[in-house]
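Dear Dr. H.,

I hope your travels went smoothly. While you were away I took the liberty of generating a structure for the chain from your last submission, since the lab meeting agenda had it listed for discussion. I wanted you to have the full record in hand beforehand rather than looking at slides cold. The sequence, exactly as received, is reproduced here:
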Amino acid sequence: MRIIDDGDTLPAMDALTIPTDLVSAVKTARHIAVLTGAGVSAESGVPTFRDAQTGLWARYSPEELATPQAFRRNPRLVWEWYEWRRRLVAQAQPNPAHLALVQLEQIVPRLTLITQNVDGLHRRAGSRNVVELHGSITRTICFDDRQVVESWADTGDVPPRCPRCGGLLRPDVVWFGESLPPDALQTAFAAAEQCDLFFSVGTSTVVQPAASLPFTALQAGVPVVEINPQETPLTPYARWTLTGPAGKVLPALLRHVTSEGKI
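The corresponding predicted structure, in token form, is as follows:
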């Protein structure tokens, strides 16, 4: 595990080395913002969005299915693809990275968890203050009025119809060509500017506008922590770079933060 840091390091826990000043920064922070990406979900076995499709879906690319235009052309095909993805997500379980973030939320005065993932695993793990930049595959909305629909009559229609207006139902996710939810985006950027410490976890830092969040924090003078197995465009600028899977790095960091003894 590679650490980019000028400070001392604590003894290894599970063969990981954690900088002492990072542990101190977590302990003294009043507000921590965390951005998570596909790498966190991948550790739960959720295929990343651009992973190769299997079976029937091998001949399609996500870009061909995750657009409003694709839905208008063939709503049944798009709905059935998302039903397949929902089944994959339902089989996945929160991993140690998700659980470590729940623990972090319990020990800091304020934590804003911003995620690019649509699988709902952060909420299933127990995180409460979650900002879903790209929506959630576990929710359904009306294609026409964008309102969340909790239930509908089973008429055999695929996709089903909105019980209010009769419009087609679709997953509550952001498709290519669509804008991110403005409230979620505003909350995310406000947290990046106002927090004491910003974590970028399991994200390639290339998908905009989420990729701008850690740089927004940097511009505001907020120290940034990157946790990722590979280097990203953020790596040269992060105050601390912890190279490794989030499911190992975050629990090790939390064990140091919660351990008794003087730092």
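Two observations you may find useful: Confidence is low (pLDDT under 50) at residues 1-14. The CA atoms of residues 101 and 127 lie 7 Å apart.

With kind regards,
E. W.
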